[in-house]
Amino acid sequence: MRMVDLIEKKKHGQELSEEEIHDIIQGYVANQIPDYQMSAFMMATYFQGMSEKETAILTSEMMHSGDTMDLSGIQGIKVDKHSTGGVGDKTSLAVGPMVAACGAPVAKMSGRGLGHTGGTLDKLESIPGLSVYLSEEDFIKQVNEIKLAIIGQTKQLDPADAKMYALRDVTGTVDSIPLIASSIMSKKLAAGADAILLDVKYGDGAFMKNVEDARKLAKTMIAIGDHLGRDTRATISNMNQPLGNAIGNSLEVKEAIATLKGEGPRDFTELCFEAGETMLLMTKMADTREEAHQKLEAVIKDGSALATLAKMVEAQGGDPSYIMHPEKFPETKEVITVESLKTGYIEDLEALNLGLVSMKLGGGRATMDDQIDHAVGLVLKKKVGDHVEAGEPLLDVHTNTGLSEELKAEILSAYHIVDHEVATPQLIEEILE
Question: Name one GO molecular function term (predicted).
Answer without folding.
Answer: 1,4-alpha-oligoglucan phosphorylase activity
